[in-house]
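Record format v2
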Amino acid sequence: MRRALACLTMLGALLGCAPKQAGPVQITLQRFFGACDAEYGSSTNVAAAEGECGIVTTLINKFNAENPDIHVKVNVVYWPGYDQLSAELAAGDPPDLVTMHQSVISDYAQRRLIMPLDDGLASVGVSPASFTRAAREGVMRGGHVYALPFDNWAPLWQINMNLFRAAGLVQGGKPVLPHSPEELLAQARQFKRATGKPYLLQSMVNEPAAYARNLFTFLMQQNAVIFPDPHHIRLSTPQAHRVLALFKQIYDEGLTSKDQDYTAATSGFLNGQGGVYLVGTWMIGAYEQASKQPGSPLANGYAVVPYPQLYPGRDATYADGHSWVMPTAKRSAQKTRAIFRLLRFLKDNDFEWSRTGHLPAYRDVIDSARWRALPHRAGIAGLVDAATPLPPGVQRQFIIQQIVSEEMESAITGQKPINTALADAQRRVNDVLFNLL
Amino acid sequence: MGQTRHGPGRIAATAALALAALIMAAPLLWTLLLSLKSNAELLRGTGTAFAPPYTLQNYADIFGHSAVFGWLLNSAIVSLGVTFGVLALSSLAGYGFARLRFPGRDVIFILVLFGLAIPEQSVIIARHQMFSALSLHNTYGGLIFPGLAAPFGVFLMTQYFRAMPKELEEAAWLDGASRFRTFWKILLPLSLPAQATLGIFTFLATWNDYWWPLISATNSDMYTLTVGVASSQMNFAQTNGLGFLMAQAVFASVPILIVYVIFQRYIVAGVSRAAA
């Protein structure tokens, strides 16, 4: 009997055990961007690190090395990690800092699941005035800062200059870009006649967001009101019809690649299958590297620019960004101070992060010579002013993008009339927004 | 009319089976092949997989992650814990339902069978809240306890014990054995084939489980292998990190492959028995 009791006690200890903390203040930082311990596990050389994972890993290593009184424990989660975060919040055991897309902040801020950071950031000398406009719009809700912005990203026109040159679409070493839907169609036809290849490369299959980003961008350029209020979307409009009709015509005339998913389109651009690939800032590094390899279809022939302004409203491109939020929980003053020291450190190293290709979230980095000296950055600097997030109060932006993309795909590929697809998208999104708690 | 050993019918059947085997094995071989290529090469196209150079870098990247052996250990503890727990509880419950007479037995048995019809998704929120209240998240208990409720195991063992001749027990009782001793020394050893079937399937299901560990073991120290390897993927891993992704798939499946090889005989017998 005693033996059985002893066994039960040991079993209970085993089952109930949890790691204890001691020594320096421990901050739990939860992030996506993957794990790369094999290459960067012990490196503090941020300048030598490459890619999102490498740079963020070495940044945290460096912070730990420079701040022996603080230990940042990193929880790497599968992208985007919101299932885990929600589970942790429900269990009352959230991490101290979490990576969050700026488009998702409203979902958590509305429910007070993340904390305003105004006072804490001020205590370490970080002012929202130092943020870029897009970053500020991305992280502020109701006049409060809910996150430290890390970057902004937006879809871009990634251009194969070798094919553009063959199509006669290069002048003065720069790509000739359209300034209206008509010019876009004309240049795309010219490109196809000259090269036999589609002008656009697009991820069009199993694509949860790219269609919506295109639509939002070209609606913004027409000064259309997409969300009259945070609980309603307005898509049954002539402006939206115009955008879908343009993309449908591009599709019908074979001026775009078809039936490619993200992976196929990404490698298709590397292999010279088309002129312009509509994809975000994060691919700049990979394509820049390819442009330096002799024999690559992009060899000495890669450029990247913001979306051209096709409509005479304003220069705008849909944008989102990564940021750091602090989930609501009781924390000691010592730990809170440590968290804000880490946030200050991340802010101070935003240049290093911007080497990933993402846009810096801070004006001083954008204006710095070293950022503009990075490949192609001068060309996309204008994006800082054009980058426009959706209105800050709009929740469920991930699912909204997915719904809009599904309906756009139906319209562009001819499965639904454009008006029907827009009406369906509007109804479905408004259903989602109506049913919010 | 019989066929000769090398008749055209037999050759056609063998060819058809070989083709089917190839179709079945092709995705696995493709996964293995891709895992041996660099991510940069695969970004240009998967056609490069058919030509050298090949590399073990993706595997080195996995083993270079300091936490990977912790994830393996966690998966082993949880899978073995659930497996032994299910075997013990299902055997005891199965024996009780098959051999004991007590008020409400049939009603309780039917209630247990209802458990087969309840999908995990429908109880996950309630379970998560309950485990939160008991502070069981991020513990081995939190990962093991949900797996112990195994209606299929109870059903399987009940049917197995029912099929055993009662004379075996009666003989033991005549020799003065208690009911528990009869169960432990006579019936339990005879139920080993069913135990093996149940144990193997429970182990495999627990090893491969992703959802519950994802939301219960949120601390990276408590990740199981499935959650751990998923967390180490980069964004757009299917595009930018395809070789690493495939190496992870191979790595995660190796322990399962070993289980299959060792227990192949029991697995085949178990599947046949379940089908019967």
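Chain B is about 75% helix and 0% strand.
The mean pLDDT of chain B is 89.
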